[in-house]
Design brief:
The chain is an alpha/beta fold. It has a 7-stranded parallel sheet, sandwiched between helices. Strand 12 (about 250-255), helix 11 (about 260-270) and strand 13 form a beta-alpha-beta unit. Helix 18 (about 405-420) packs antiparallel against helix 19 (about 425-435) and helix 18 (about 405-420) runs parallel beside helix 20 (about 440-450).
C-alpha cells in the first residue's frame, strides 16, 4: 500500500532549523511501515506550505497519509488536511502526535476530514490500520505500548522516496527511550507515556550510530530523550560500546540534575559527550515546587559543579512567567546562574499545552478552554541565550577524572584556547589529539580550521586527511573546496565541491559555493 508519512511546520517557521525538522516519531513510523512491506514516502513539507504540499501529495497518488501534529504546527497541518480532502476525498487521512492525543474528540469534531486519529505511539496502530486497508469501526484509535523498542527500525534505514528531507541533518537527532517517570506540571510527557519508560538497548543505539556514520558521514549526534541519564547502568554500557566502536563521534543530550554523578559524566565524556543540557527551569525553590520538579537549587549547584569538574559544556533550560512568580524568584534564578556559571542558557516563557497538569488545572478553574486551539493560530498559550565568559576551567582536574586517554579533553581544551585566539595553544591540543588518536577525524578538522587563517597549504593537508578518514562526511569536502578555491587550486576545488554536493545536495551553502567555484566568481564573495 502506498502511504505518505507527512510533517509540515507552520509556514512562518519554515526557516527555523529545529521546527522545520521532522519529529523522530514520524520518521520511525515511515521506516517501520516500509519494513512491513508498504510503499512509503517520507515527506517534510515544512519549506513548501500547505498548498504546494497538497499538490505534491496528490501527484504521489498515495492511498493514505499519516500526519504528525503538535500544538505548534497544528494550524498548517489542519489546513493541509482540509485542502487535501477537498482535492481528493478518497485519500485516507490519519492524524497523530502530541496534540491529537489529548484533544482527540474535539479535533475529530472540528475536522471531519480526518479519517482516523491515533492516540499515543503510532507504529503499531498505523500498521494495523494499513493491514486492514484502513477499514475500522472507530475513528479514534488508542495505541498499544511498544515494549521492545529494538524491534522498531532506525529512521536512517528508510530506503523509500523522500521529499524535503535532508538526511545529513535529520538523522543525527536520535531518541533512545520513550517516556519519563517525572511529573513536571508544564510537560505533557507524564500523560502521553503514563510515566512509564521503555528503552532501546545500548547495542541497538550504537548500531544506529554506526549506520548514520557510515552512510551519511555524520560525526556529531544529539540524543533527544526526555532524560537520557535515567538508567545509569544502561548509560555506562552505551558509553563503553561507543568508546570501543572507535567511531569518535561527538554528542550531546538532555538530563535531569538528580540523575547524574561523576562516574557517569566521566564515562559519557570519554565516549564523546561534548554538551549536556539540564532542565533547571528556575533557581527559586518555590517555583520549582510549583513545577513539581522534585529538585532543589542545591541539587542544581551540585550537578553543575560535577559537570564543570569533569569538563563538559554546561547548558540550562530555564522558564519564566509562571503564575505566582515574583521579582524575588527571578532574582533567585539570576543568582543561581551566577553561581553555577553555565556556558549557555535558554530561557522560554511558560506555556499551557494540552496534556499538561497546569493546562488541566486551569481548565478546571474555568480560566481557559480547549476552544483556544481552534479559535487561535498561536503556537502555544503563554502565561504571562545567555552565556558567561568566566568558565573557571581546571583542565588538570578534568584529566584526573577522565584519564589521559579521553580524546574529548583535547577538544575541550583546544576549543577554549581557539576561542581566545591563542592559536599556538589550541594547535598543540589538536596535534596531541591527532598523535594519540590518528583515526579520529575531529583532530584533523579542528587543526585545519585553526590553520586556515594562517596557511592554506597546511589547512588543505588536514582537510584532505579528514576526507580520507570519513569520506561520507560532506563538511570536510565543502571546507576543503572553499580553501582550495581561495588558494587558486580551481580544478581541485571543483572536484571537492562536486563530492560535497553529491553527499549532501540539500545544504544551501554547498550549492552556493559550487556556483561560485564552477563560475569562477570573485573569490572575495566567499
Amino acid at each position: 500500500m502506498k502511504i505518505f508519512a507527512v510533517y509540515l511546520c507552520d509556514y512562518k517557521d519554515r526557516n527555523d532549523y529545529y521546527l522545520s525538522l521532522m519529529p523522530y516519531g514520524i520518521t520511525t513510523i515511515a521506516a517501520y511501515l516500509e519494513q512491513e512491506g508498504h510503499e512509503v514516502t517520507l515527506a517534510n513539507f515544512s519549506s513548501y506550505g500547505y498548498l504546494k504540499a497538497v499538490e505534491l501529495t496528490i501527484a504521489g497518488k498515495p492511498y493514505a497519509v499519516a500526519v504528525s501534529i503538535f500544538s505548534f504546527n497544528r494550524t498548517e497541518s489542519f489546513k493541509y488536511i482540509r485542502e487535501l480532502k477537498r482535492r481528493d476525498k478518497n485519500i485516507v487521512v490519519v492524524a497523530g502526535g502530541q496534540h491529537p492525543t489529548f484533544l482527540a474528540d474535539q479535533i475529530i469534531s472540528h475536522y471531519p476530514e480526518i479519517d482516523f486519529l491515533v492516540k499515543g505511539e503510532g507504529e503499531y496502530s498505523i500498521k494495523q490500520l494499513a493491514d486492514k486497508s484502513f477499514r475500522h469501526d472507530e475513528k479514534i484509535v488508542s495505541s498499544e505500548r511498544i515494549t521492545n523498542l529494538d524491534t522498531i527500525r532506525f529512521p536512517s534505514l528508510f530506503n523509500g522516496k523522500t521529499i524535503g528531507v535532508n538526511p545529513n541533518e535529520q538523522f543525527k537527532y536520535i531518541i533512545t527511550s520513550r517516556g519519563c517517570p517525572s511529573n513536571c506540571t508544564y510537560c505533557s510527557s507524564p500523560n502521553f507515556w503514563n510515566k512509564k519508560v521503555t528503552y532501546r538497548s545500548p547495542e541497538n543505539i550504537v548500531n544506529e550510530l554506526k549506520h548514520i556514520n557510515e552512510k551519511f558521514g555524520i560525526i556529531y549526534f544529539s540524543i533527544r530523550d526526555d532524560n537520557f541519564t535515567l538508567n545509569k547502568k544502561r548509560v555506562l554500557e552505551f558509553c563503553r560500546l561507543l568508546d570501543e566502536s572507535r567511531l569518535y563521534m561527538m554528542w550531546n543530550c538532555q538530563a535531569r540534575v538528580d540523575t547524574i554523578d561523576e562516574e557517569m559524566l566521566t564515562a559519557m565524556k570519554k565516549s564523546g559527550l561534548e554538551h549536556i543540557q539540564f532542565g533547571v527551569e528556575s533557581g527559586s525553590e518555590k517555583i520549582l515546587k510549583i513545577y513539581d520538579k522534585h529538585i532543589t537549587p542545591e541539587k542544581i549547584r551540585k550537578a553543575s559543579a560535577i559537570t564543570r569538574k569533569v569538563g563538559v559544556y554546561l547548558s540550562f533550560y530555564l522558564m519564566t512567567g509562571m503564575t505566582g512568580e515574583t521579582t524575588d524568584d527571578i532574582e533567585d534564578t539570576k543568582k543561581l546562574v551566577q553561581q553555577t556559571k553555565p556556558h549557555d542558557v535558554i530561557v522560554s516563557p511558560v506555556a499551557y499545552y494540552p496534556g499538561t497538569k497546569i493546562y488541566t488545572t486551569s481548565m478546571k478553574k474555568g480560566n481557559i478552554s480547549d476552544n483556544i486551539w481552534f479559535n487561535s493560530e498561536e503556537n502555544g498559550l503563554y502565561l504571562n541565550k545567555q552565556s558567561t565568559n568566566d568558565r573557571n576551567i581546571d583542565f588538570q582536574i578534568h584529566r584526573q577524572l577522565t584519564g589521559d586517554n579521553c580524546w574529548m579533553n583535547y577538544i575541550i581544551e583546544g576549543d577554549h584556547y581557539s576561542a581566545k585566539s591563542d592559536i599556538k595553544k589550541a594547535s598543540l591540543q589538536y596535534l596531541k589529539l591527532i598523535e594519540n588518536y590518528p583515526d579520529n577525524i575531529w583532530g584533523y578538522l579542528r587543526m585545519a580550521e585553526v590553520l586556515s587563517a594562517e596557511s592554506d597549504i597546511r589547512a588543505i593537508e588536514y582537510f584532505v586527511k579528514a576526507t580520507e578518514l570519513v569520506p561520507s562526511y560532506y563538511g570536510s569536502w565543502m571546507r576543503l573546496a572553499q580553501i582550495e578555491y581561495l588558494s587558486g587550486k580551481i580544478s581541485r576545488a571543483k572536484t571537492s565541491i562536486s563530492k560535497a554536493l553529491k553527499l549532501n545536495p540539500f545544504e544551501p551553502e554547498i550549492s552556493r559555493l559550487a556556483g561560485l567555484i564552477n563560475n569562477k566568481n570573485d573569490i572575495k564573495s566567499l
